């Protein structure tokens, strides 16, 4: 019997699926954020680089600062605050 996978992206096919008309746009990869901006974590499945954990999907947080090409985002998860470091293609500016 094969042991079932316990990986990070297990059972994530439907959660990371893109719609028929949602195509790749390079503007997502070149977004700029400033410290204090409110952002939504929206995972881009075409880019696996520094993908945040799936439990953070849809969370709203504040940008703390920039770490190389990535951004540090402070979110509230459960009863504590966490810091998520992710690339700009996985973030969307909150209106």
Across the major sheet, the strand order is 4-3-2-1-5
CATH secondary-structure class of the domain at 29-93:
Mainly Beta
Largest sheet: 5 strands, antiparallel
CATH architecture of the domain at 29-93: Roll
**Rg measurement, Å:** 14 Å
Give the low-pLDDT segments. none
- Strand proportion: 25-35%
Figure out the total of helices: 0
Tell me what the structure shows.
The structure is a single chain. The chain has about 100 residues and is mainly beta. About 0% of the residues lie in helices and about 30% in strands. The chain has strands at about 40, 60-65, 70-75, 80-85, 90-95. The radius of gyration is 14 Å and the shape is globular. The model has no long low-confidence stretch (mean pLDDT about 90).
What are the SSEs and their pairings?
Layout: E1 38-41, E2 60-67, E3 70-77, E4 80-86, E5 91-93
Antiparallel strand pairs: 1-2, 1-5, 2-3, 3-4
Could you give a quick summary of the protein structure above?
The protein has no helices and five strands. The chain has strands at residues 38-41, 60-67, 70-77, 80-86, 91-93.
List keywords for this structure.
single chain; 95 residues; mainly beta; SH3 type barrels; 5-stranded antiparallel β-sheet
């Amino acid at each position: 019997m094969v042991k079932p996978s316990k990986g990070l992206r297990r059972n994530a096919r439907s959660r990371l699926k893109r719609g028929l008309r949602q195509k790749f746009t390079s503007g997502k990869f070149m977004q700029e954020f400033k410290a204090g901006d409110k952002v939504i974590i929206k995972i881009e499945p075409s880019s696996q680089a520094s993908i945040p954990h799936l439990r953070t999907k849809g969370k709203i947080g504040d940008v703390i600062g920039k770490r190389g090409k990535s951004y540090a985002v402070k979110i509230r998860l459960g009863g504590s605050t966490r810091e998520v470091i992710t690339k700009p293609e996985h973030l969307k500016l909150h209106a």
